[in-house]
Amino acid sequence: MIVLIAPENDIPNEIEILHQLFQEGLQYYHLRKPNKNYQEHCDYLNQIDKQYHNRIVVHHFHELVNKFNLKGIHFQEQKRKDSIDNPGQYFLNLEMYGKTISSSFHEPEVLANCEFEFDYHLLSPVFSSISKKGYAGRGFDVNTIDKLIIGMGGVTKDNLEEFHSLGYKGVGVLGGIWNSNEPIEVFKAIKHHFIN
User: Fold this and answer.
1) Which of 10, 24, 49, 142 is the most buried (most CB within 10 A)?
2) How would DSSP label each residue in the chain?
3) Between β-strands 72-75 and 100-105, what pairing exists: parallel, antiparallel or unpaired?
4) Does residue 134 carry a pLDDT above 90?
């Protein structure tokens, strides 16, 4: 399973690259644009071919699921702490039928003890981040946690086997693809690893 996180700030040809990645089989695109407001999120989504909307998970403005045919919503750590204590209330006005719900974690113990059943969990930093300087990897081993966990932090096409041996069912990529001169080729190499 490959989760691609959006670059925080727009980059040249981003939508064009994204369409190519969808065409190559990208299934999970996490739209994380903290500096964009609600309308800017709508404008961004409207640039993406509607046939791919059901592969997009939003981090901000979860109510976008009511307006677009999105894959699901994602809780960053603080948002999870603020909202999931009373999930029934939080989801009341969201059309969540058939949608995914995921969340970010930074400590394996917190993830293991989380009682809310997320469809999948992002855990970071496994290795030192490519996109965030000074974000040192901690090599979390999750083989003993019986949940669907996606490893993030320092993902390259060369260390996928290490993620696998640490118990991850997939990887979350940001800098490994967006900072590459050949994002499509990198994605294809990562995808090839997870198919085989």
Assistant:
1) 142
2) -EEEEPPSS--TTHHHHHHHHHHTT--EEEE--TT--HHHHHHHHHTS-GGGGGGEEESS-GGGGGTS--SEEEE-HHHHHHHTTSHHHHTTTS--TT-EEEEEES-HHHHHH--S--SEEEE--SS--SSSTT--------TT--S-EEEESS--TTSHHHHHHTT-SEEEESHHHHTSS-HHHHHHHHHHHHH-
3) parallel
4) no
- Reduce the DSSP state of residue 78 to 3 states and report it: helix
- Which single residue is written with the structure tokens 């695109």? 29
> Tokens 């727009």 sit at which residue?
10
| For residues 140-157, average pLDDT | 95
Q: Residue 47, class by beta-carbon neighbours within 10 Å (0-12 exposed, 13-18 middle, 19+ buried)?
A: exposed
Calculate helix-pair angle for 14-23, 183-195, nearest 10 degrees. 30
